[in-house]
Amino acid sequence: MSNRALLEVIALDAEDAVAAQAGGADRLELVTDMAADGLTPTVETFAAIRAAVDIPLRVMLRAADGFAAGDVSALVRSAEALRAEGAEEFVLGFLDETGGPDMAAVRALASALSGCRWTFHRAIDRAASRDALRKELSGLPGLDTYLTAGSALGVDDGLPVLLAEAARRDEPGYEPRILVGGGLRLSHLPVLRAAGIDAVHIGGASRPGGWGSPVSAAAVAEWRAALDA
Fold first, then answer.
1. How far apart are CA 9 and CA 22, in angstroms?
2. Which of 71, 107, 127, 155 has the fewest CB atoms within 10 Å, i.e. is most exposed?
3. What percent of the chain has pLDDT over 70?
4. Is residue 141 assigned to a domain?
5. CA–CA distance, 65 with 67 (Å, rounded to integer)
6. Is residue 98 part of a domain?
7. What secondary structure does DSSP assign to 88-143, as a single string?
8. Mean of pLDDT values over 208-228
9. Can you name the residues that pair with 95 across neighbouring β-strands?
10. Beta strands in the chain, from DSSP E residues, in sequence order
11. Which residues lie in coiled coils (predicted)?
12. Domain total of the chain
């Protein structure tokens, strides 16, 4: 079995996707509108990216900035349309007014995804209790990953939490893979890998020119090389 670490890169369009794959990305997270921290892309954008690359794609299900679900029925319709176009993996995550997981919204989408694999994204970093959230979500069909920095402030602040959660990987609620993203730097990788964390997520780090510029294959390749070192 390969011990290659997973490198996930945010892609906004087919140009990003092609560059990310060329640089060594293993998977893409597909979003639109990074000014709102990443919303659901159109079916047409998904189809163009799917035609351009052959690595796995995880598609964001999120209609507005923040961590409230909003119109869940609209999100379900988006999920169904994307699935009809061939989407097989997704990203989602919603909190209620108490800071706990919005279980009604998450269950509705998990049901619509019907066993597709999905990531619970950085809403966990805003939760009132990370442990309680993990235990409430435990066992939902398809949930295989948490995208997290360990803290709403980013990996610098959240590193101790990430290491502690990695050490609990055999406990109920902690079985999903930890995918680290949010203020992640190359200098974080050695300690994360030493703790057994084998998946990272980059967005701005793949775009030396900023979010107004496309993904750089060379920047992705630098992360690939560091992960493989």
1. 12
2. 71
3. 99
4. yes
5. 7
6. yes
7. -EEEE--B-TTSSB-HHHHHHHHHHHTT-EEEE-GGGGG-S-HHHHHHHHTT-TTE
8. 97
9. 101
10. 6-11, 27-30, 57-60, 89-92, 117-120, 143-148, 177-180, 199-202
11. none
12. 1
Q: Which two tokens stand for residue 14?
A: 């087919």
Residue 52 CA to residue 8 CA, distance in Å, equals 17
> Vertex 211, ends 209 and 214: CA angle to 5°?
65
CATH number of the domain where residue 12 is located: 3.20.20.380
Cα(96)–Cα(119) distance, integer angstroms: 18
Tens of pLDDT, residue by residue over 42-72, are 999 999 999 999 999 999 999 999 999 999 9
Task: Answer yes or no: is 179 within a domain.
Answer: yes
Burial of 54 (0-12, 13-18, 19+ CB in 10 A): exposed
Domain containing 54 equals: 6-228
Does the predicted TM-score (pTM) go above 0.85? Answer: yes
AA identity, residue 36 = A
